Amino acid sequence: MKLDPYWVTGFVDGEGTFYVGINSQPSMKTGFQVLPEFRIVQHERDIQLLYALKEFFNAGVVRVNHGDRYELRIRNLSVLKETVIPFFEKYPLHTKKSIDFIKFRKIILKMINQEHLTKEGIVRIIEIASQMNRADKPKAQEIKKDLQMDKDNVHACEKS
């Protein structure tokens, strides 16, 4: 299946998601892991379309999302930076999703600059990610609050 890039942009405008998860990960320097992903979900009857998009981007994995839903998920940071972001810069989105994409791109650039390896960087990433998609992200806000309290405690100890 040969996909037209303009069609891909229109399809992603309706069916795609740019998402950034923040998970507790004790083995990480900050105790948290930042997981950006570009995702497209479809019913199993349209799984061939997900495989065509995987081939189009030359990246990702097609897997079960939930029940009879499947997803194409691209998480690889270098692929996001070198393939996904340049594609949507060349073929821009037209819906509100374009704003999510701009924020997603900002987060990817922060990660490329290794800002996600500091607590302050994770706080900034959470601030940006909290404005994407649905704004109600209680888990991310709780992480942000904890990280800011850690920072305040360090500053209080330094002053005493």
Quick overview:
By secondary structure, the chain is α+β, with helices and mostly antiparallel strands.
Write the layout of secondary structure elements.
Layout: H1 5-15, E1 16-24, E2 32-43, H2 47-57, E3 61-66, E4 69-74, H3 77-90, H4 97-112, H5 119-129, H6 138-159
Antiparallel strand pairs: 1-2, 2-4, 3-4
Helix pairs in contact: 3-4, 4-5, 5-6
Based on the model shown, name its key terms:
single chain, 160 residues, alpha+beta, Endonuclease I-creI, 6 helices, 4 strands, globular
Estimate nothing, just give the exact number of structural domains: 1
- Count of alpha and pi helical runs: 6
Strand order of the largest sheet: 1-2-4-3
CATH architecture: Roll
Uncertain segments are none
Strand content: 15-25%
The biggest beta sheet is recorded as: 4 strands, antiparallel
Gap from first CA to last CA: 66 Å
Count every beta strand, where a strand is a DSSP E run of 2 or more residues: 4
Task: Write structural notes for this entry.
The chain is an alpha+beta fold and 160 residues long. The protein has one domain (5-159): Endonuclease I-creI (Roll). Helix content is 53%, strand content 21%. It has a 4-stranded antiparallel sheet with strand order 1-2-4-3. A hairpin with a 7-residue loop joins strand 1 (16-24) and strand 2 (32-43). The longest helix is centred in the last third of the chain and has 22 residues, at 138-159. The termini are far apart. The mean pLDDT is 89.
